[in-house]
Task: inverse folding
């Protein structure tokens, strides 16, 4: 790996500055660049890894670092390596990476002003089903958020979500301080992660 990782600064429209250090960056002999990140536990919900079984909530925290890595001016893959296999975040064009990072900075600022209508697992559930009937997609997201008789929901496992959003309707109909709503935030913040991962099919664990 690069022992002297590059540092990049980025400033949002709200005046927030992101200082990004690119770690775990490897240079291959053929000139390609990649980051190798080891994830504790399983990255998939089934024994046959596929994009449909990815634990998206374990991939999302690594998205900002992946975007920051693109600022070196060369394409960078990020490989997330877990017990069930590997998923790969595809390179993002440098100008697009900057746009995504600024959106994340603006989202952080918005969330710091008041309740923010987003929940990671629920957001990805809605994204996976958004091509269905809109009501059906929301029904599936509601089950993900509130749980069912045999499986706890995301809200039950997160004290902050439980205190902030008394029910699913509140989550999906209450705008943020910048008038951002649940479905818009799903598409703005999480869909780029989904699209990046879907460009690279997960590979089974070699062990």
Result:
């Amino acid at each position: 790996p690069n022992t002297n990782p590059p540092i990049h600064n980025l400033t949002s429209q709200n005046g927030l500055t992101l200082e990004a250090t690119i770690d775990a960056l490897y240079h291959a002999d053929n000139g390609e660049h990649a980051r190798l990140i080891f994830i504790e536990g399983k990255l998939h919900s089934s024994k046959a890894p596929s994009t449909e079984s990815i634990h998206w909530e374990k991939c999302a925290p690594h998205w900002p670092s992946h975007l920051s890595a693109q600022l070196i001016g060369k394409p960078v893959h990020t490989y997330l390596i877990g017990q069930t296999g590997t998923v790969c975040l595809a390179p993002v064009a440098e100008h697009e990476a900057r746009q995504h990072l600024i959106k994340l900075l603006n989202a952080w600022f918005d969330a710091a002003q008041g309740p923010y209508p987003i929940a990671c697992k629920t957001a990805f559930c809605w994204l996976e089903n958004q091509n269905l009937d809109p009501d059906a997609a929301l029904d599936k997201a509601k089950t993900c958020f509130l749980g069912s008789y045999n499986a706890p929901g995301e809200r039950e496992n997160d004290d902050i979500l439980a205190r902030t959003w008394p029910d699913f309707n509140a989550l999906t109909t209450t705008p943020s301080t910048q008038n951002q709503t649940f479905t818009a935030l799903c598409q703005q913040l999480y869909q780029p992660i989904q699209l990046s991962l879907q460009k690279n099919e997960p590979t089974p664990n070699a062990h």
